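dumping this here before i forget
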Amino acid sequence: MSGTEKAMQGVADTLREFWVHRPVRPRAGRKAGGVATGIALRFQIDPVIVRIAFVALALSGGVGLPVYLAGWLLLPEEGDAVSPLESLINKGSSSMSHGQTVLLGILMFPTLAFTFGGNSGFQVFVTLAATVACIYLLQKNRGHLQPAVTLTEPAPVPPAPGAPAWDPLGAAPFAWDLPEPAPAPTPKPPMHRPRKPRIGLMTLGVATLVVAGSAIAGVWAPWFTVAHTIGLLIAVLAAGLLVGSFTGGGRGLVWLLIPLSVVGFGLTAIDFDGSPSKLSSFNETPKTVGDVRDRYATSVGSVMLDLRQLPDSGEVKTAIAVELGEVRVHVPKNADVTYRCEASSIGDLDCLGKRAEGSSVDVSGKDLGENGEGGLKIELDVQASVGEVKVLRD
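structure:
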């Protein structure tokens, strides 16, 4: 067996061991399905770190949503013999009903459609591969650890030996038969605790160097914009939190990572040159053919275009692109309209009488209006990722 084959066999064995000793979703201390808390207890890391990882995966093209649902379906709950999905195929019993399991399975379809429909397949598979790699590293380095103890009820105080049933603690005066107090033990010198590595300070130092280096490099390289610099800072802070989860430090970095992630997510809807054209709405009623733009584009917003005030002759060609939002176009009754409407992820289309809804749908055709061919000619190309598209003749 070659070295590559041995390495692949080792990875497969480690992942198989992870499945055999997979995390258990606890009933206490969880926020939703208990997936993040179960992973944290299994590998003895901070639950906040795991939750942030799922949020980061959700922001990375929505990959975290199907991954979390998969964990909910495949990890057993505390006290159950098998997972909900295994219970559904009669491999054991689970506290989750079959109806709830089926509902979670149904929710997988829109989340997968959103994940694969709104991103390139390469990005999704790279993110999934990174997730599997993290699971492998956790099992390889911390799989030998016993799961952290969950919250339990305190043990009852045992009754005093020989005490009557009505006085289990032996508090009655006639039941006192106490030995002489033993001499106080000599106090032991305090144990020297090793100092935790200053992960937080080191991470902040690296982050400061990143900001300074990006500011200097930005003079010559246009790539180092505010959005890209924030992305680098998020990567540095996330790496510091990951290291801190193993060494027991750096938790304060969370309060920097969360606002930076929000700002970075908001900047993804803005062009890197600072133009906010992708975060806007259009509501226009052009009166002449020259007033119609060649393209209307927005990332999050709506496009309302009323072409009913145009003259009865001429040619109009325009394209509309919306990632998340609504598109509504009104065309004149007598115009010859050639159209194509598409929803690449999830959408609801209603274009001159042709309807379609669901994932990755499109309609196209040519409508000559009430008076037949002749007059104003309009060519529409409408694309939306998630949203509603309507082309109306009214």
